Amino acid sequence: MKMTRSLRSLLAASLGLGLALARADVALPALLSNHAVLQKSDHTRVWGKAAAGEEVTVTLGGVRAQTVAGSDGKWQVSLDLSRIGAGPFELIVAGANRLVVTDVLVGEIWVCSGQSNMAFGLARAAEAAAEIPQSANPQLRQFRVANVGTASPADDCKGAWISARPDAAQEFTAVGYFFGKRLQQKLEQPVGLILAAWAGTSALSWLPPAAFAGAPEWQSKQASVQQRVDDYPVLKEKYLPAYREWERQYQRMDHPLDPDLYAAPGVRLDDWKKVTLPNTLKAEGLPDAGAVWFRKNFTLPPGRRDNAMFQLGAVRDFNVLYLNGKRIDATTVESMKGGFDVRYTLPKGALVAGENTAAVRLFTPSEKAALPSTLFVGVGSARLSLNGPWLAKVEFEFPALTDAARKALPTIPPNPGTHSVPGRIFNGMIHPLMAATIKGVIWYQGEQDSGQPATYWKMFEALIRGWRAGWGCEFPFYSCQLPNYGAKTDKPENSLWAQLREAQAQALTLPHTGQAVLIDLGEEDVHPIYKKEVGERLARLALARTYQQTVVDSGPRFKALHIAEGKARLTFTHADGGLVAKPLPAHYQPTSMSPALKPLVRHSPDGELEGFALCGADKKWVWATAKIEGEAVVVWSPSVPQPVAVRYAWANNPTCNLYNGAGLPAAPFQSGN
Q: Could you give the CA distance from residue 425 to residue 420 in angstroms, rounded to a whole number?
C-alpha cells in the first residue's frame, strides 16, 4: 500500500516527538548554578536529572566522574575536590546535552537556617553603613533558598548565588555574612552560605517527616494546623458576605470623606488633637469605634530611601496609609488576615529626602480601636521609630455596639498559610539541599517557641538528628541561644525565655554542637540590630571546634555548686583568662529605634556582679550579692541563710555581667533546684 505524503509527515512528526520524549536533557538543580561554591571534600556530590539510563559525565578542574541516570531519571556523582585549588572553575555536565556552570569556587559550605533573626538582612544591621561599602569579596557568596513550603519532600528549590559586593551585600543574612567573613579571612578559603530561613516559624516547621512518625503529639499538631489551612478558604468565603450583612444590619458601614481633607500636604492642623502612640484610642480620648486620622512628620537621615517599609504593628482594624499625600496601601475587609502585624512595603519614591508626612486612617466598625504596638519606618539598615507624639482628627464616630451587634459580629478567620503546617518548610527548603555536601549548619530560632519551653528540647533534638540523618553525616551544628529581650523586671521571677534558653542549651549534650550565648546582645525589640558579634561568636565555635584553630569559643558555663556556711560557691568551665565582672553603665538604651535612655537599676549594688539570685527550701527567689573569688563565684543573701539553688541571668531581659577574660558572657543557668 502506498503511503501518502500527509501520512508520511504524520509518522515522521510522531517519530520525532517520541525521540524528543526519550531524549531528556541533563538538568541541574538551582544550587548548582553560576557562581556556586562547592564543598572542598574528597566526596563532593554533584547531582541532577536526565533520561533514565542516560550516561552523564561531570568535570570540574580536571576532576572527572561518570554515572548513569536511574530509572527515575536521577543521577549523582562524587568528586574528589580535596586536592584542587579554590578556582574559579567551570562545572561541565555532559549527557544528551552539555551544561557549563561558570565561576564555581571550591571552599566551605555552611547552611544558615532558623527564623527572622537569621533571615535578618545585612541592610538592616547596625553595622550596615560601615560594612556594605567595603563588602567586595568574591570569595564570600550566598545562595538564598526561596520561602516555599511543600506537602512532600521537594527535590529542588528556587534561588541564585550572589557574591559579596556593595550592590548585593545588603541581601545577605547579617549573621551569616559576619560568620562567613570571619571564616573566609581566617581560613583563606572561599565560603558559601546557603540561607534557608523563614520569619515567625516554629522548630516543628523544620522537622523531617520521619520525626513525626514516632510522636503522636506532633502528628496531632500537624493535623490540626492542616485542618485550619484547609478550612480557611471556606471560612473566608463565608466571612465576607456575613460581615457585609452585619455592617448593613447594624449600620456600621464605612462612609469616607475626601482623603485630601486629612492626608494632603498643607492641611490645617490647628484643630487636630495631640496624642501619643502606640495606645488605644479610648485612652487618648478618641472614639472607640468609627474613623480616625493620624498624622506625623518625620525626618529621614541622609542616604538611600529605597528598600523601605512602614510598620503599623498588630492592628486588627481596617486602615489606609498615605505618605506625603499619596496613597500607599490599605488593609481592607477583603485583605485583612486577622491579628497579624501590618507592614507595608513602600514603592520607590514614596519617601523623600528630609521631612516626610505619614497619614494613617484607622476605621474600626466594631470597638476597642487601637494602634497598639511599635510603629516605625525601615529604610535599608535604619529603623526610625514613630512611637511618641502624633496628631489625630476624628472623621466620624459610631455609637457603642449593642449586645446583639457584638454577639453577631463575624470573626475574621486567621490565615495560617500552608507553610505553617509542621514539616512543610523542611520539605520545601531543607530537603532540596540534602544532596549537597556541606561543612555544617548555623541556627538562630526559638522566639516562636518561647511559650513552650518544656517541649522545645525534644523538637530541637529531633531536628538536629533528623537533618544529620538526611545528609548522612554528623556535621557540626552551632546554634544561637536567645538573647535578652523585652522590658527589665524588678523581681527575680520565672521566665519563659529563660526556660527556653535552658532547653536550647540541652543541645550541647549532642556531639559536634556548640552554642553562641547572646544574653548581652539583645534589646526590647525582638529583632536586635547588632549582628556582627552574633556572627563572630558563631565563627569562634566553627574555627575552634571544626577547623581546630586556637580560639576561645565560649564564655563561662556553670560546672558545679557547693554550699557551705550559708554561701553558694560556683565553679565554671570555659573561664579562659579568668572570671571577669564587666563594668555596668549607669543607663541603658532599651531599643535601638529610640535614643532615649533609662537608668539601669542595680539589684545587688554592694556586689561586683549582677544577675544572681538564691532560694531556700521555700523556693522563694531573692536577689543575691555575688563576687569573684579566684576561679569561683561566691553568692549569698541575708534573706536566704540556707540556700539550696542559684540562678544567673534568669529573666527575659536580665541585667548580668559575668564574662571570661576573652570578653565572652557567661551562659544563663539555674542549678540545684
A: 8
pTM: 0.89
Does position 21 have pLDDT exceeding 50, yes or no? Answer: no
Whether the per-residue pLDDT at 1 is higher than 50: the answer is no
Phi, psi angles (nearest 5°) of residue 236: -65, -40
In the block, residue with C-alpha cell 556572627: 535
The SS3 of residue 503 is helix
Dihedral sign for Cα atoms in the order 474, 430, 527, 353: positive
Distance separating alpha carbons of residues 80 and 42, to the nearest angstrom: 4
Distances (CA, A) of 182 to 119, 165, 279, 514, 612: 19, 16, 43, 17, 34
Q: Specify whether the backbone of 659 is left (phi greater than 0), alpha (psi in -120 to 50) or beta.
A: beta
d(CA 325, CA 653): 40
User: b/e map of 193-225 (b: 16 or more CB within 10 Å)?
Assistant: bbbbbbeebbbbbbbbeebbeebeebeebbeeb
CATH 3.40.50.1110 assigned to 109-204+424-553: yes
| Domain residue limits, the chain | 109-204+424-553, 251-401, 557-671
**Phi-psi category of residue 501: left, alpha or beta, with phi > 0 → left and psi -120 to 50 → alpha:** alpha
Per DSSP, the three-state class of 664 is coil
How many whole angstroms separate alpha carbon 576 and alpha carbon 556? 8
Determine the CATH number of domain 251-401: 2.60.120.260
3-state secondary structure of 517: coil
Name the pairing type of β-strands 477-480 and 513-516. parallel
> 476: Cβ–Cβ under 8 A, 6 or more apart, which residues?
439, 440, 441, 512, 513, 514, 541, 542, 545, 546
Alpha-carbon distance of 85 to 238, in angstroms, equals: 62
Residue listed under C-alpha cell 541571668: 649
- Residue 635 and residue 624 in contact, taking contact as beta carbons nearer than 8 Å: yes
For residues 282, 288, 290, 296, the Cα torsion angle rounded to the nearest 10 degrees is 20
**Cβ neighbours of 388 (radius 10 Å):** 13
pLDDT confidence bin for 18, thresholds 50/70/90: very low
pLDDT above 90: residue 380: no
Residue 634's DSSP bridge partners are: 569, 627
